[in-house]
Amino acid sequence: MEMKKRINLELRNRAPEKVTELVLDNCRSSNGEIEGLNDSFKELEFLSMANVELTSLAKLPTLSKLRKLELSDNIISGGLEVLAERCPNLTYLNLSGNKIKDLGTVEALQNLKNLKSLDLFNCEITNLEDYRDSIFELLQQITYLDGFDQEDNEAPDSEDDDDEGDEDDDDEDEDEAGPPGEYEDEDDEDDGGSDLGEGEEEEEVGLSYLMKEEIQVNGGVKGCRKQPTGSFE
């Protein structure tokens, strides 16, 4: 699918100025150029154009709010100075799998003052001696190169952060529910609350016995009503 058609499809009848994320991966660019994008995408914060056979960024529009730009697996070999001119607030840039060979090409990224993460994995420049040290010295504003900082600590993954948040939610649910058996004792107390004392039990038994005798007498049934003297009628 051509890039222009893909953009129209991704818009889903929305106005360009309402779009904050746009993914155009695996579509076809015309002559290696960006087409269909213009300055009306002024609210765009995330743009992905991976594997679209780009050779040039010359037609990249001004996207002042763009924070993340994915350009992996293209054929870009230079012209990176346009990024600082038109996307000055970039914090994340992925150029992995392109044709970037030397430090002079990357030097154009020095003007991206907010850039924190740069990915050049699988580019020829990674074969240079002291590649990592040279990039960190050249681009002192970045914190992560190819997913790791200067001390080889891995960049945090936003998905992992979400998982930790879910675990915290589970812990909160457990706290709200209370430990198992918390309410069992209360139920036991309720059941036992109706227990009668020893004297009350004896009185109830006596009443029950007299009631049975009264029923037998009133009903005309000759019973063996117990007399205080122990004799029978």
UniProtKB/TrEMBL annotation:
Gene3D superfamilies associated with the record: Ribonuclease Inhibitor
Lineage of producing organism: Eukaryota, Metazoa, Chordata, Craniata, Vertebrata
PROSITE patterns per record: LRR (PS51450)
Name of this protein: Acidic leucine-rich nuclear phosphoprotein 32 family member
GO CC annotation terms, alphabetical: cytoplasm; nucleus
PANTHER family listed in its UniProt record: ACIDIC LEUCINE-RICH NUCLEAR PHOSPHOPROTEIN 32, ACIDIC LEUCINE-RICH NUCLEAR PHOSPHOPROTEIN 32 FAMILY MEMBER E
This protein's record includes keyword Transmembrane: no
Primary role: Multifunctional protein that is involved in the regulation of many processes.
Main location: cytoplasm
Keyword vocabulary terms for this entry: Chaperone, Chromatin regulator, Cytoplasm, Leucine-rich repeat, Nucleus, Repeat
Keyword rRNA-binding applies: no
Gene Ontology biological process: chromatin organization; regulation of apoptotic process
Biased composition (Acidic residues): 148-205
Pfam families reported in the protein's UniProt record: LRR_9 (PF14580)
